Amino acid sequence: MIKKFNLLFVCSLLFFSVKAQMPNTLSAADKVFGLSKFWQEVNYNFIFLHKVDRKMWDSTYKKMITDVQRTKNDYEYYREMQKFCALLKDGHTNVYFPKGIEQMNTMFGDYRLFIENIDDRAIIVRTNLSKKNEIPVGSEIIEVNGKSTQKYIDEAVAPYISSSTDYVLKDMCISGLLRGMEGDRYHIKIKKPGGKVAAFTLTHRATEEKEVYPDFEPARKLLDFSWQQNQVAYMALNSFGDKKIDSLFIEKLPELYKARGLIIDLRYNGGGNTEVGTAILKYLTNDTILFGSKSRSRMHIPSYKAWGKFMEIPDTTGNAWAKKAWLSYNDSYYYDFEYSADTFKLDAKRIVVPTVILTGHNTASAAEDFLIYADNQKHMKKMGANTFGSTGQPFMFGLPGGGSARICTKQDTYPDGREFVGYGIKPDMEVKPTLNDYIQKTDPVMAKAIDYLEQQLK
Prior knowledge:
Elements: H1 2-20, H2 28-45, H3 54-70, H4 74-86, E1 94-96, E2 107-108, E3 111-118, E4 121-128, E5 140-144, E6 147-148, H5 149-157, H6 166-175, E7 185-191, E8 197-203, E9 212-213, E10 223-228, E11 232-237, H7 244-256, E12 261-265, H8 274-281, E13 289-290, E14 294-298, H9 302-308, H10 320-329, E15 334-336, E16 342-343, E17 355-359, H11 366-373, E18 380-384, E19 394-398, E20 404-408, E21 410-413, E22 429-430, H12 435-440, H13 444-456
Parallel strand pairs: 11-12, 12-17, 17-18, 18-22
Antiparallel strand pairs: 1-20, 2-3, 3-4, 4-9, 5-6, 5-7, 7-8, 10-11, 13-16, 14-15, 14-21, 19-20
Helix pairs in contact: 2-3, 3-4, 7-8, 8-11, 9-10
């Protein structure tokens, strides 16, 4: 019993010695200033403020004035800031740690675990090679620190993550389920594919073993191209963040002109520049006019806000000035950016064939803009899962101690006003991969797309 006590005591000392090394540079005034700056900029700039419970938001801010001063180090402070930010539920509004504070996710010394959301379960999809038999791929994490995985996520993970959609939040919670600082310890239970339950105690520290199982997939190319059966061309557009993809696409045109059907894969396209995507899309339609998203931002005129304090809703009826004042006082006065469709000339031959666009939870931002432009193309069908559901123009600024934040200042919608931020763009045909698909390394979305095009080309 004494030996066990000593072992626990030594482990505790090691754990707390790691925590003691955390940077602790922020004064109480710094912490309150950073919190107040974020709160202020949200109130002034956040485009979705109308969706926030203002009483909750302000009362939380008031409580956090005390809470942030009690944090023991910079890490704890920034965690509180992330928790505050997560209340806004926006994927383009975030708080970031300063350099030097980096959380660990997959490494636990002798163990290395990669976790993904598969069938709404926390599934281990990769381990370090030496542990592949001890922790088989496909094992499910069913308990963390004495709580069911879902309860642990609800209490200790989800409150710190900013997301516009529930399903992306779930993805991020599961992939970062065991995220923490070096020295953080987790007691987990897993259920192996055969049903056997095993328990592990894991502590974050660097894993020296380099080999993982299964091995990492090769890095995705900016543009990937291949031929499928029946002259169906497959083209993965994996980012609109590098304009080079437009040149790569032009190089493939001679081959693409031979296609009877086309699959465009946007499942791993996290966005970039909208114009990069539309430069490709114009080759895939006979139209010379493309309709993109409409945008708006908040407008703040202090005098109107001052006048609006004395306005009631009945005062706004038939009175444009009173309405503007009332909206300003209630932080709901918007500036609609000038909207016009994109008109272009293209002398080159078009590729207008039955087309399937593959989408997923990682299809985001400028890739979602691509889908809005393609929305009225009758020869195109979306297939897969809902998109990320977040875009906009973030306002970025620094926080005390070297951290930073960003706040979304622009709302984008379909041309007719339909919202996709917070909902995602829905596919025309939903296809959900299963755990068995992952283990068997099959791609049911791709298979469904090929089958659909075969039917169209008969």
